[in-house]
Amino acid sequence: MTTRRNFIGQSVGLTVASLGSLPSTTLLAAPPVSDVMTLTLTASPSAIQVGPDGTQPTQLWCFNGQFPGPEIRLRQGDRLRVRFVNQLPQPSSIHWHGIRLPNHMDGVPGLTQDPVPPGGEFIYEFDCPDAGTFWYHPHFNSAEQLGRGLIGALVVEEQTPPALDHDLTWVLSDMRIDPQGRLNESFSNRHDQAHAGRIGNVVLINGSITDRFMLPGPSRIRLRLIAATNARLFELKFKGTKDSSVQLIAIDGHPITPKPVTEAIGLAPGQRVDLLIDLDASGSLLIEDHAYPRNVYKLAEITGVGTQQSHSKAFKTTNLQLADNPVPPVARAALRQARSVPLVITGGAMSRATRADGIWQINGHAMTDHRREDLHHMKPNFKLKVGEVVQLQLDNQTAWFHPMHLHGVVFQQVMADQSLGPYRDTILLSPGQKMTLAMRADSPGLWMIHCHVLEHQHSGLMGYFSVES
Ligand code: C2O
Ligand code: CU
Ligand code: CU
After folding, report:
1. Ligand 1 centre from 454 Cα, in Å?
2. Torsions phi, psi of 343, nearest 5?
3. Do 2-305 and 332-468 fold alike per CATH?
4. CB under 6 Å to ligand 1: residues?
5. Which stretches does DSSP call E strand in 399-461?
């Protein structure tokens, strides 16, 4: 078993850190509805220690000099107002992954706004209708900009957050660095584009290789996991001591009926899960990543220390069903009558479809970047009216995994028995997999659809749909 104390693939010792406690904002009395949270996010180069002992700080691009960027926390229904300042040597933007917002705030250069030039600024302002775990990142030259560190968590708390001992967020990312700590700068090279994307050699939790966490036990923990890697997939197995338990309570921000975690939890780039962990007094919980069978490693170990007074025992008997978000449901009848839209994914290594204009295609078309010019010769993959329901027929005709993401909407997988799966904004397609998604267009505008393996996105696996009022 490998740990992350060193480069993945080498063996090691442990570092220990305290998890800290509940962010103080969550301890305050509930603010009046429709508060405005105002902040500035400045993207600029910074050197940050991410590698193991013996490496130098790595030259990254960061929000406010932090990696990951500052966690933004606000209440459901509140308004977020962000002044984005671009101090990078190239244009940029911020996209608010998973937030259902007005199209002109979606942060997609060429589609919803002009790119923010070096030295430029842009004000994002929108309400957050859904509680849950979301994140933010640029949407310009994404493979490089996210690969250099421009990622951050956006947590929307319930109006009345559930009783817990700790509410923690882990932004999961990885980096490709050399033994001195220098970042490999061949972003979106042709090999990564045509294969599984840029997979790093250090895996980071909140920007750190720390893999051991101590918490006063017993305790009840809400753990929010965000897969913010360019390409790395996670397949997490949980091994706890006897009185510890792990439940899945939300997927991509949206609550589900809590379900004990008995198998590995898959987490692909862009996706999130919320877990409810009950940790016994001196128990421990081991989290291993089995996504790549030849490279299984320990992601983290959470250990309970002491017998600190905790509410855990009392909480355990309480129901942690979070309230549904105000997503307009897809009506059965509407779904039966819904138009089918095919989305056929082709290309990549081992494919005959690889062409000069892009390595990957959606319905035969490669969209390789979203500068403004591109729009004028690219038509939307499909067009909808506000309120319209469609069935998206995804067909992955490639030999590769693709976490497909849609902006501005949530969707549900239509299961074999016609039941609808949980709400998601990003869903992983296995090689050769076909899948039907049900979705309802809520908000007018032009919305992206793309693979969240950023090297695939960069080399063609991208398109958009339009919603007209
Ligand atoms: Cu998180 Cu269009 O992306
Ligand atoms: Cu998004
Ligand atoms: Cu892909």
Report:
1. 9
2. -130, 95
3. yes
4. 95, 97, 137, 139, 270, 405, 407, 448, 450, 452
5. 402-406, 411-414, 420-424, 426-429, 434-440, 445-451
Query: Which protein residue's CA is at the shortest distance from atom 1 of ligand 1?
Result: 97
- Contact, 368 vs 468, CB < 8 A? no
What pLDDT is attached to residue 340?
Answer: 97
- Pick among 3.90.190.20, 3.40.50.920, 2.60.40.420, 3.40.720.10: CATH of 2-305: 2.60.40.420
pLDDT-derived band at 374, boundaries 50, 70, 90:
low
In CATH, what number does 332-468 get? 2.60.40.420
Taking the centre of ligand 1 as the mean of its atom positions, its distance from the CA of residue 405, in whole angstroms, is: 7
* C-alpha of residue 260 to centroid of ligand 2, in Å: 28
Q: Please tell me the pTM assigned to this model.
A: 0.92
pLDDT at 60 over 60: yes
Nearest to 93 by CA among 64, 117, 60: 117
Q: Which residues make up the environment of ion ligand 2, defined by Cβ < 5 Å?
A: 97, 407
Residues 6+ apart with CB under 8 A from 464: 111, 367, 378, 380, 381, 446, 447, 448, 449
Q: How far is residue 89 from each of residues 69, 86, 119, 177, 230, measured CA to CA in Å?
A: 18, 8, 9, 21, 21
Domain ranges of the chain: 2-305, 332-468
Give the position, in ligand 1's atom list, of the atom nearest the Cα of 135: 1
Measured in degrees and rounded to the nearest 5, phi and psi for residue 234 equal -120, 145
Calculated CA dihedral for residues 32, 33, 39, 43, nearest 10 degrees: 150
d(CA 364, CA 463): 11
* 416-447: pLDDT as tens digits: 999 999 999 999 999 999 999 999 999 999 99
Q: Which amino acid is at 364?
A: G
Give dist(CA 130, CA 251) in Å, integer: 13
Phi–psi pair at 249, nearest 5 degrees? -120, -20
Confirm if 448 and 107 have CB atoms less than 8 A apart: no
The pLDDT score that the predictor gives to residue 373 is 55
